[in-house]
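Q: What structure does this chain adopt?
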Amino acid sequence: MKKTFTRFIAFLLLFGFTFQLPFQTVAISGADFSTNILAARLQKIFEGHVGMYADSACTKEVVLPLGSRYDKDTKYWIQNPYTGRTFYGWQCYIYGNAAYNALFHEWVGHANSLHHSERVKIAAGIDRLSYLQFKLAGVRCGAYIRTTPNPDGSFNADNGHSIIVLSYNPSKITVLEGNADRNGLVRVISREWNDFSNAIFTSRGRVLCHIIQPTKDYYDQLTMSRCRYCGEIHTGFFGQLIQAFHNFFLFF
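A:
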């Protein structure tokens, strides 16, 4: 039996067969893309702890390491670790929002009620993105991209794609995405700029809706050694008062 199995493996290798493991096998680390707290949060996401839950109470975590899949037609919940509020969604939309929330403690949604995040100054409605645009606009690691089929770039909840930017250079861009293959795949992928625009815009009949990222002050705190925004959930008047004291004594 042992010899038969060995011969079978040798046969596969001889004729060029390969095994596709259930999870993404290329070694990726949060430290590849950022530093300090942000790098640690990225690492947790890569390991599967993106903050998606199967229940509205957010007690049943859905662990999704790179290369895994989730049911794209199932509703999932996330909870903001700073305010305690919960939100829900499906497909790439909930994964993208979960990842952004895990990184920056904010729900993007329609991008209408942002607290410590802001819109990147790249015009909605365009169907190409480039290194120069990103560089001039100061796009940061963790930025959230949303696409839409609406020509004016307005938000469309039923048709669009949500992506998290990890890094970029003049040649390529690397992103994190859920439901990447329309079948729930979670992956990190690098593409040349033209291929990236074709993949998220042209081939899908979509344009840019918005790019959201944390303010510079908030982002810098996560990439420095100390962070005023990294406490536990504090809600209500007294909870916010506790958080205010926490922030004060952390820096003074």
